[in-house]
User: Fold this.
Amino acid sequence: MSGPQRIADAFANAHGRAALMPYLMGGFPTVAQSIEIGQAYVDGGADLIELGVPFSDPLADGPVIHAAGTQALAAGATVADVFDVCRVLGPQVPVVMMLYANLILARGVPEFVSDLVEAGGSGLIVPDLPLEESGPLLEACDAAGIALVPLVAPTTPEERLERIGARARGFVYTVSVTGTTGERTTLSDTFAHTIARAKAHTDVPVALGFGIGAPEQAVQAMEAGADGVIVGSRLVRAAAEADDPAAAVREVVASFSAALAAA
Assistant:
């Protein structure tokens, strides 16, 4: 089954609630522990997993995820190690890898996409790849059955939203705020409008991320029309603060899953 089809099925099989997509920093705190954390996500009710690759200059990431990536790099984590994490988790839920363009270019676009397919990945998010420069990677992903997932923001102009939505694969990653990743006490005043604008310009699901740190915020996103919610810094922080990271994140993921199901 192709990556786009697996992703579509994951959203469809959420049974009327928003699909839950926790973010996992590959290699944090160690490669082995990141596999355990990812398995805890699955056990806690994740429908998909966003798998981050540590990078020295993560321009879209706030301090919590940046620190996790720095620790993973210091421990020796590599792109190949993150592919190993994907190999374990990919057979269980769709894994969408998130990484920066330099890591793909260093490996070569065809080689990277081929490696992602071999590792069992379903999709790819490249936050620093502009629409105008995405053609070669989109072509390679389409040929290999990988969903190249675009991002849109509250500031994305209407005409650009239309072009992004038409080329979206898997889902549209809708950023709730202008800024970096990180927990917020409340969602922005414009998040519902941002979701509505994204949904008006695409036929694939729309998932909201950046700033969702509590189950009630995930429910707010779902009630505003989000087909999926992405939870990152809250889970990375839970893993960093716990003696048993896997147990800690399983509890957090389960709380989000339960809140979405109840709503």
